[in-house]
Amino acid sequence: MHGFIPPHRYYAYLCWTDIRDMQDKENVVLIQPVGAIEQHGPHLPLAVDSAIAQGVIGRALANLAPAIPAYALPTQYVGKSNEHCHFPGTLMLSAETLGRVLTETAESLYQAGFRKLVFANAHGGQPQVMEIVARDLRQKYPDFQIFPFFIWKVPHKVGELLEPRERSEGIHAGDAETSVLLALLPNEVKMDRAHAEYPNTFEPDSLLSLEGKLPLAWLTSDISQSGVVGDPTTATAEKGEEMLNQVAQGWQEAIAAVHQFPGF
User: In 3D, which of 192, 191, 196, 182 has the Cα closest to residue 236?
Assistant: First the structure.
């Protein structure tokens, strides 16, 4: 059940008496990996975002200082993925449903005495859901600290391993995600099917963008026939290992910062 999470850091392997008797529960860091089951082109499995969320958090927890109490919750595999609705296989929750699942999970943890919860989201289509849930929980429970983090926003230098165009335009199933999956689940990657596809949506001097300062609403079928937005053909397992190590190190720092945060 624990997948990439170290067994001793897996919340679901604890007994209820372990929870009852846990010391300094208010400063225990609980991490909710949040992914998706959605298309990632013809060469990657549907589980990419969920695998990355769990893989990164698992590696971070494996190397985290033993003195820092932190546990990963079972991964939330299905997310808000309606931008991929035209590609068979994608599973979709509404923003409302995902928000309720995360809210009620958090409330169960609060009832058990925990006061620090991190959302470790790896799907680019749902950070806003994490942020709304976190703010609403904060309003309802003034002593509950909720941290809506995106898996790729911790300190790292992954961009240095990518080509310039991939760094700026490769937002889905490109080099980074493919490399990481080659490191995590190599048997599930079909590199013979990998090909590059970039959208030609905007002129170079346009103020508008897909995910920049002035974004617009889009569906993947608007910008890609294959479901790929980037170039996975340059991916390697070696790059994936380096990316995983860098991002996991950033998460170690983030978990330590959450543990040390005194609250408001």
Answer: 182
Three-class DSSP labels, 89-127? CCCCCCHHHHHHHHHHHHHHHHHCCCCEEEEEECCCCCH
Distance CA 157, CA 71 (A): 26
Please, which residues have CB within 8 angstroms of residue 187's CB and are 6 or more apart in sequence? Answer: none
**Could you tell me where the beta strands, DSSP code E, fall in the chain?**
29-34, 70-72, 116-121, 145-150
Contact residues for 164 (Cβ-Cβ < 8 A; gap 6+)? none
The fold adopted by the segment(s) 25-203+216-256 is Rossmann fold (3.40.50)
Q: Is the dihedral of CA 138, 14, 70, 124 positive or negative?
A: negative
The pLDDT of residue 213: 84
Instruction: For the chain, give every domain's residue range.
Output: 25-203+216-256
Query: Please, which residues bridge with residue 229 across strands?
Result: 172
In 3D, which of 140, 96, 98, 134 has the Cα closest to residue 116?
Answer: 134
Distance CA 188, CA 7 (A): 23
Residues of the chain with pLDDT under 50: none
